[in-house]
Fold this sequence. Notes:
By secondary structure, the chain is of the alpha/beta class. Helices cover 27% and strands 25% of the residues. The chain has 5 helices and 13 strands. This is N-acetylmuramate alpha-1-phosphate uridylyltransferase MurU.
Amino acid sequence: MKAMILAAGLGKRMRPLTDHCPKPLLPVAGKPLIVHHLERLREAGIDDVVINVSYRAEQIIDALGGGDDYGLRIHWSRETAPLETGGGIQQALPMLGEAPFLLINGDVWCETLPHPQALRGDDLVHLVLVDNPLHHPDGDFGLAGGRVNQTSNERLTYAGISVIHPGLLAGQPQGAFALAPLLRAAIDNQRVSGERYTGHWVDVGTPERLAALESQLQLQRQRGKE
């Protein structure tokens, strides 16, 4: 299985930290945030990773190169301007191929990845869902019996990690477009499975959340030394 990391965003919510540094390169626990993703992917046996870039793209490419330092191959999908999630995936599909692939938002911290075989039958998507964080109390989707829905009273939050079948984007034109409407259509067509993850997950979307994550990881390291 191949993987794609979404790293083309402008990082506006992270300003002023992203005025001169793209969000994927912001340090967490002594290394860039995106490097943690690369290391987890390699541990999961994934060798080929596509990364889309736009804002300060050359900084990211210069920092990571071809992936040799991380034991994998990085393929770069350059966007002149950010194409949103759907458009970014669509442009990268020639590098991803025709098989399902793992999709990761570059600005999340998560200590798990879905199983490569999580997508089954004629499903188009498998979502990792988490309990709603304080900044997103209403959640995104329901989950019942391993199936994602839009009708349950209890809602969970999309973790920014999923397994995607390229067929989800079939017929979509090139250019910028959002992924969410395609996800919702697939959910309504009963073609989306899901799992609930209750471990350590953070949407690293603001300087405050980045600082809180750093503090938590430092505390964990200190406890591990005791």
